[in-house]
Amino acid sequence: MGDSQPRFSLVPKIINGGIAGIIGVSCVFPLDLVKTRLQNQKIGPNGERMYTSILDCMRKTYRAEGYFGMYRGSAVNILLITPEKAIKLAANDFFRHHLTTSDGKLPMVRQMAAGGMAGFCQIVITTPMELLKIQMQDAGRVTAAALAEGKPVPKMTATSLTLNLLKSHGLLGLYKGVGATMARDVTFSVVYFPLFATLNSLGPKRNDGSGESVFWCSFISGCAAGCTAALVVNPIDVVKTRLQALTKAEGDRTYNGVVDAFVKIMKYEGPSAFFRGGGCRCMVIAPLFGIAQMVYYLGVAEFLLGMGHRKY
Length: 312
Known about the structure:
312 residues, mainly alpha, 10 helices
């Protein structure tokens, strides 16, 4: 890189990513819980199901588990979303910076490569985070199904679940479903980051000389790019969620890997099953990334650290 290239500061990007992740997740977590339960629910032979829609799932969850039940598993998510979002957002900027050509341009193929590598970097955090989160989110559905069958259900906590996984499977036990997680996150990032950058570049710029788009443009661009990428990867997300659901309700199928899950879902539930929870996922991802990108681009860390806002 020549001297004309702007200096890349990693620390403020990591801080911004962490702040953005915490705020975003806190706002949309109840919808994410609903998405998990819709994707995991079993459809009966006559089409009967525990939840008939997003609103039905939210209503039944609230009635059975109360307000805090809507945030079941959020502690794990908020704890790990800080490094996850920090890695994702900062890594994308890092790779974009180093893949920029000497004349300051970044071709679309390089933008996609930067996004894909950022998605790959995050799976070290995403996989155990998603695994633990899904168990906690799906616990209410599993409990309700078990109680309907007259079976006792042991209380589940994130700590006990983690310890049991480590005891029975070692550290690798926390990485169940890593293949599906990698496929989802890399594909998502390949679609999301170039699309976000393109949309964000079309908006009006700030008058502070940073060259950045105004905050509301970053929010709208994040929402639009997040919604699009979420729909593209929803089939992979369904497979990942099924593979990572360790506690099964009565009649739930078991899967022996990504290919086996794809085949069984297609065979027994049809193509529409791969888009189950898709609307809810879009409702989660769109504001999550809109909020995250808006906070990230506001440059809170640069302000706190007394640094000028980045121009890259």
